[in-house]
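Action item from last meeting closed. Structure (279 res):
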């Protein structure tokens, strides 16, 4: 009987081994690891620049990972279990704040996951649910994987990382996706400055009809790089009468990465919070 019991325990340990010690792929870059090859070099550089800038400004580390198949790496694990285990294996985010974010795309399984660090309260899942439903899944169902990853990453910066770092509560109305063309230029300004500017615009009356219906958006015509400045347009439009004005903006060159705040992983962990989608 004792021998049978020992044999049973040994079999259980053997079955549990894949769950306890997965051989996860290791990151080659702190911000973008496109193992599925769905991103163009331009998209990859744009995402990396946005996430690097966001981390420098807010301290929140967001990383993007695409895989040909997660099942090939860890057979039997659910998407959620896989994402949490990989997140903790990599140590995404700061170890004291646990404020990392993982955006994971698995092509063969047609799944996408936003995994949040332990530092995010459950209310932030309402924000990530909206990003999943309004930005990621619609793009992926159209086969626009690069666009979905790029726009999804930018929304995570603007609607999760920046307000979280500023101590703000999660926003409730997140149904409107960001304008893709203006996504590249958003990381050039501090989040607080952007929010204050939008608030003051909404409080002003339209010079044409007098209603408080002004909204401001920005479109980047030429993204800034480390070697050249960029160009953008800031558009103020009245939602009541359609009046519109355009201001032209010069975007400063991107700064060289600060190695003390930009590279590597900080030892953060996740407790399984976030949002999942299947397309």
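Sequence:
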């Amino acid at each position: 009987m004792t021998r049978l019991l020992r044999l049973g325990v040994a079999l259980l340990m053997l079955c549990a081994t894949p769950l306890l010690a997965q051989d996860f792929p290791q990151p080659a870059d702190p911000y973008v690891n496109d193992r599925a090859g769905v991103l163009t070099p331009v998209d990859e550089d744009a995402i990396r620049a946005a996430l690097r800038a966001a981390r420098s400004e807010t301290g929140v580390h967001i990383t993007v990972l695409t895989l040909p198949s997660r099942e090939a790496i860890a057979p039997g694990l659910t998407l959620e279990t896989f994402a949490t285990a990989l997140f903790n294996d990599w140590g995404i985010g700061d170890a004291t704040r646990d404020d990392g974010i993982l955006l994971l795309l698995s092509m063969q399984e047609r799944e996408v996951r936003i995994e949040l660090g332990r530092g995010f309260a459950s209310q932030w899942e309402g924000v990530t649910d909206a990003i999943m439903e309004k930005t990621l899944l619609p793009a992926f169902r159209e086969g626009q994987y690069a666009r979905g990853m790029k726009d999804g990453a930018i929304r995570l910066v603007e609607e999760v990382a920046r307000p979280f770092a500023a101590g703000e509560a999660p926003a409730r109305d997140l149904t409107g996706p960001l304008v893709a063309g203006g996504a590249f230029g958003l990381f050039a300004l501090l989040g607080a400055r952007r929010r204050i500017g939008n608030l003051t615009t909404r409080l002003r009356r339209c010079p044409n009809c007098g209603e408080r219906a002004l909204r401001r958006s920005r479109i980047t015509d030429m993204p800034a790089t480390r070697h050249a400045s960029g160009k953008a347009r800031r558009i103020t439009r009245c939602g009541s009468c359609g009046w519109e004005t355009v201001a032209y903006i010069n975007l400063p060159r991107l700064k060289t990465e600060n190695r003390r705040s930009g590279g590597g992983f900080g030892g953060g962990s996740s407790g399984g919070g976030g949002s999942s989608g299947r397309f």
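Note appended to the action item: Strands lie at 32-34, 62-67, 101-106, 111-116, 214-222, 230-238, 244-251, 274-278.
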